[in-house]
Structures are given as C-alpha cells and as structure tokens.
Amino acid sequence: xxxxxxxxxxSEASSDHGAExxxxxxxxxxxxxxxxxxxxxxxxxxxxxxxxxxxxxSSDPRKCLAKAPILKGIGxxxxxxxxxxxxxxxxxxxxxxxxxxxxxxxxxxxxxxxxILRQTIASHTGKWRGIVEGPLFRKYFPSGLTDGHDVRAKxxxxxxxxxDFFNLKNFGACRSVPDEKLMSAGLVEExxxxxxxxxxxxxxxxxxxxxxxxxx
Length: 216
Hints:
Elements: H1 4-13, H2 19-24, H3 26-47, H4 54-57, H5 61-64, E1 75-80, E2 90-95, E3 100-106, H6 111-123, H7 125-132, H8 135-140, E4 171-177, H9 179-182, H10 187-209
Antiparallel strand pairs: 1-2, 2-3, 3-4
Helix pairs in contact: 1-3, 3-10, 6-7
C-alpha cells in the first residue's frame, strides 16, 4: 500500500515549489521514494505471477520508478514485459493524489511507433477489436482507450472498419484508483488485476512495434 505520508508529500510537491523547499523536504522525499520502491517491488513480484516475462525485463524496481516526477508530485511506475527497446507497451501505475490510475499499453508513443501501430491495426482489425471491445477489457476499462477517438484518418481507406482508431495519440488503457484504495491492503491485488486485463493489449502493441506481427 501507499503510505499517507507519501500522498501528503506528493500533494505538497505538486504545487511546484522551488529548490529551497525541495532541499528543506529532502527527508520526506526520500521516505516517499522508499515507500514507492517497496510498493514497486511488491507489484513486480505479484505481476510476475500473471506474466513471467516481467522477472527478466523489470528485475530492478529502481529502473521502473521514474525519479524526477516524485519531486513534481507524481509517483510514476512502468513495468516492462519485453527486453526490446522498440517494445512500446508496458504495464504502468501513476500515483498522484486524486489523479491515480493503473493499466497497460503505450501512452504517447513516439510518432514512428504510433504509425506502426496504426498500420498494424489496419491490417489486423479483428484482433484489435477483439481486445479493446472484449468483456474483460471493458470490465476494467469501461471508457476504453485513453483520450478517446478521432473520427478522421489520413492515409487510410475512408470507410475502413478501424477508422476510429487511426488517429489515437494514446494506445493505453487506464483504470482510476481512488486515494482510499491507494492506502488499502488490497492495492497490489487490484493493480495486478488491471494489468491482467490489459495484457492482451500490451502483447498486441509489443508484437507490432518489435516486428513480430507475424504472430497475429
């Protein structure tokens, strides 16, 4: 679980204080980081039960926790499932008071990888829709993919069945996590469930972006 003191620090740090405030609150920042690292370690261990690839790709929890965002009021965790540098999708958790979420996929992938994803969706639309419109995915991510859909697409057939996905900026699914859940004993379990619901999406994206689309 996430400690109340960690959420308090993240809330105060989000106010964009200067270097002097950060220096005065270094001990609180260090405590928050230790708490987040401990949680990340627990999360990796538990997530490894549903996706064994994580043990190798995310063996060091320090590499899964972004450093700078903590000083800006955010605990950002990215759990990788592939050793390939081109693998765009991860499982992720964003911890910020009143704005926390967990899920999986690729949030704001580089333009080149986004283009590859759109091309793959155009070629494997049935598989894509089976994932993002499937019952497990919709149960945990009722709003669908992050940031909605644009109805116009450039460079694709005008009446293509997947037209509503071609101009996505984000290819990730996020499940909101209220503050009270962050501080509950069941946080790891609930987060892992959201990862499990996003696994098919993560696999689809990573197969496409690593050139393994022959597996579709």
